[in-house]
Every structure is written in C-alpha cells, then in structure tokens.
Fold:
Amino acid sequence: MKKLILLFLLFGANAFSQAGSFDTTFDEDGKTTVCFTQDTHFSKGSNFQSDGKIIYFGANTISCAYDLVRFNIDGSLDTNFGTNGIVTNICSSFPNSGGYYAIDMAIQLDDKILIMGTQQNNTYPNAYWLARFTSDGALDPTFNGTGFKNLSFGTIQDRGFCIALQADGKILVGGTSGNTAEFFTVARLTTSGGLDTTFGVGGKAQVAFSGTESMANSILVQPDGRILLGGYTVNAPYAKDFALVRLLSNGSIDTSFGVNGKVITTVDSNYSDAITQLALQSDGKIVAGGFTSFEVAHKMAVVRYLSNGSIDTTFGTNGINVITDGFGGQNCSVAVQADNKIIVAGGWQGSYFEVFRFLNSGALDTAFGTNGLVNAFPVTGGYASKVLIQADNKIVVTGSSQSADFTASCASVIRLNPGTLAKDSFSNSIVSLFPNPTTGVVSFDNSINSFENVIIYNYLGQDVGKQKINSVSDSQINLSNFSNGVYLLKFIGENNNAVAKVLKE
Structure:
C-alpha cells in the first residue's frame, strides 16, 4: 500500500492546482529570495542535487562567480551548505585570481558541483576555466589535483560559455576559439579533469561556419550520445543567426544532421538572432530557445527542429515562434514537460521575470498563468535565467530580483504548479515492465514498438542514465547500480515513444 501511495505522490496528476499558480508549499508563497549587499549580482543558473535541493549559481561583474546558494526542497535556505547556505567569493581560491567570468554550471550524479566560464583580462591569456566543488560547497582537490582547471585552445578568442555532462560522467565544455575567425569549440574532460584524448583531436573539436564569427552557448547530449551545440554565427554583415551543429560521440561532425552537420536559421532578417539554450522532446525533436534582437528590446524566440536538423514546420509559424507577449528578453531558458509542453523563461534588463508555456503546436497555452504568462516579480522586477522541471512536473525557475527597497540584488527561486498534463501528448503505447518492483533488471516486450533507447529519470526529473535497447523482441534494462526509489523510464523509438514507471527496491 505504501508503494502505491508513493507512486501517486510522485507521479500523480496535478489536477487540483491552477496551471502556472505559485506552489504555496514552497516557502509559503511559491517564492524565495536571498539578497546581497552589492547591486551587481547576476543569476547564471541552477540545478537539482539528488536529494531535491536546489543549487543556485550567481555572479557579478567584478569577482567572477560570487555565490553558490543551496535551498531545501521547501524553499528554505539550507544552512548546512557553505556559510549559512552560501558559498561566496569562490574565485579567491583560483590561481592568478582575477579576470574570471562565471557563465554556466552542472551537477554530477554524485552531487559535486561544476562551474565554468571565461578567463579574460590584460594579464593572462584568454581561456576556458572550470572548478569543481563537493556536494557541500568546498573546492574539490580531486579535480585536476587542485579543484580548478584552465583550458586553452591556443587562440586569442578562447571563451567558454556552456557545460554538459555525458551519461558516463565525462564533462563537455563549449564556447568559441579562433584568431582571425571564431569557431564553435568543444572539449571533453574525464571525471578527474584531464582531457579525454579519444574525443576530437587531443580532446578538443572545432567547427567552422561560413562567417568570421560564431559561438556555442548551449550543449545538449542526446540519448544516443550524439552532441548538439547551439549558438549563433554571423551569416551576413553584422547579422547573427541561430546556429546548430551535431557531433558524433567521438567529436567528429555528424554529416547526417542538417547540411554537413550544421543548421543555420534566420529568425528575423532585420536583426541579430542567437540560441541560448537547447532542450529535447520525447519524440526526438529539438527545441532551441534564444532571442532576436530589436533595436530597443530583445524578443525571446523558440525554433523547433526535427531530429535530422530540418525545421519542424508544424510548430509556430513555419517552425519559428517569436514571443511578442510580455516584455521580451535577452536570455531564454527552455524546458520540456512530460507532455511535450514547452516552458520558456527569461526577462528584459532586470525588469521582468517572465515564464511562458506553449503547447506542443507552438501556440501559447492560455490556461497557464494569465493568458500563458507568469510575471513573478511585477513590483521589484528581475529576470529568469533557468527553468527546471521536477518529476512531479512542478516548475522551478531561478533568476534574480531586486530587494523591496531596490538597494540590493537577490537570488530568486519560484515554483509553479503545472496543472493537469495533456494526456493526448503521450504515446498510446503500453510498456509493461516485469518484475515491478525490481531489485535490479526489468524486462519488457519490444517486438511491437521497436524502441531504440531509454532515458532514466529519478523522482526529481533528473536524467540519471541512458541505455540502448539492442533487441527488437524481449529486452532488459539494468537498474542494479541505481539507488532504491521510483524511476521514470522514457522509451524512444524512430516513430513512437512511451513512458513507464518502475520501483527499484
């Protein structure tokens, strides 16, 4: 009986809460903030640790990564992390401290925290940099022997902007490099911080577009191990366009994607466009969130691609959706719910902390918030930097807002109710797992659906593993090395997808 109750609590329908309403079980009003004395604080990102606690990552323009903050599941500050829940001035422990700009973060399956960015000043050469912290916020000396690593491509434009983790724990960092021209660049590191020489050339790969300037802002690892990089390229004089490239797991270009592995999309020919974050739907479609730059304000934009890189013309207007509602935004974070509805969050110049939801068709979901929009801090303003979705489909959005007296900038987290999931967005396929509950291996009949891959999510909605399905008949999924608990298995095939739940004992 307890198992059935647990399954209901974790994965039951959220039919009794208005979609986009604030979850009042989270710090009583669905919002929590921690304010800093300086007013130069910028929210950079966030993620879940395995116990559901939220790691928030922020920076300022002076001292690189200014803070890591940990919140409990209920939204309260976790005072067991760092000093009273905060780790501050983390660059002070880096060699040649100075000129380190913090950009992105990731959390390993063992809860260690990776942050990265660009080292750029007049004293030291440009470089990517990474630092790893233990789950409790201390610099981890097992990473590269010091907890810190500079990574150079040997060019004057080495700048790191994004990070992602593979299922095997290897670390991907991306950005740009070059001298007279700038390339999409990615490097792969082992879990200990050394370059993985099986990737690209000596652990590094560069991809040139036709223009003289290009930059990767987001990395996404597909279930099959292929690697997507999204950002922009200058495709005409002074005009930036959405740019995508897909690599094979060894770092070589996947020529089956787009045109020779690359895709360039003009969102608005009159302005500059750039991808800021990538997400993947359960049917393999690729969601690219970004912005198109107007002279006065930026507008968030979303483009959806088929798995082969061609634009999905069933989405929005010929595959493109420029968000004209709300107040616009230069940052655009995207996440996909289990029913393939798309959450988009961003903001404009610290004034508007906005969260939108779109249907699978690309139309604004008017049942969410107020006509599809939640403005989280209408009085003090702010902006959203990252969307996270829990396994119960509650929506966590982190960002920055101002204090009530406008004298300080605050790390801000909100949690929204998802409402009822759209059942017609799920596959009708039924996957029966046996035994369920299991102590290790579960089996299923794959003869009808011919699924090719399965993604394993924990109860927090975190991707904790991927497995290939090698048989078209009876197949197995091995959960022996996973902790006890409830898992959501997302089965992916060429023409069909399905979701099943399993309890590991």
